[in-house]
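Suppose a colleague, Dr. K., hands you the sequence of a protein chain of 261 amino acids and asks what its three-dimensional shape might be. Before reaching for any lab equipment, you can write down a predicted structure in token form. Begin with the sequence itself:
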Amino acid sequence: MSGKRFYSEFDKVLLAATILVFAFGLLALYSATQAKGLPFSESYVLKQLNWMLIGAILLILIVSISYQTIIDISYVLYGVNIVLLILVLILGHVRLGAQRWFSIGAFTFQPSEFLKLNLILALSNYVGSRKDAMSSLKSIFVPLLLLAVPSALVLMQPDLGTALLLLPIFFSILFIGGANPRHLAGLLFFGLASLPFLWKILYGYQKQRLLVFINPNIDPLGAGYTIIQSKIAIGSGGLFGKGWLGGTQNQLNFLPERHTD
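The predicted structure, expressed as tokens, is then:
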């Protein structure tokens, strides 16, 4: 694609909106995480700027590729992602009891983050190529396999949150793609019926997270601490917040993971 054609076909409104979201996000991140005396070279903002630069380069590369080409290589991208999910269980960096990250110098990344996009592409490829046959029961077996394999690998890290996020992706694409709603309802019913079994195989910390999410006051100084402090931060700020660098909960280090909480 020539530079002139690339510029003329690019959605400039979407690009402007994306840049505004990035800029607002950086300001919010700086206000939430920049403590007094912390050099900018160690700030989360600088790390985020690095990722934004990488993202911008990838954006230019990806939009220069035709949509059909991306669909054609979707299974390859999915396969590479599966390999990365296996390797992270062997070579990945362990943090907070989970082995989810690759560390390359100052950069870390989670293969499971790329999985969300690659699962969308792989499922879309399959559904699109079998649109007229998606109403049959056997048509959902392959999509189930595409979902089950990475979900199992993600749960082994362990990362229950990401595994759960894959479910709405799966059901949404199959529903839009023409799968029989009764078959999808059956899968959903089977999943709900399996909850008691799934509860038994959850790690202790995962059970604790779910219980604390429902009632953080059962462990206010432990697992529920972050949730309680987050609620205090939101409540004390009111509708319009406390202003630039004015958040007491984050500035006084009450929030342990300020860059995400």
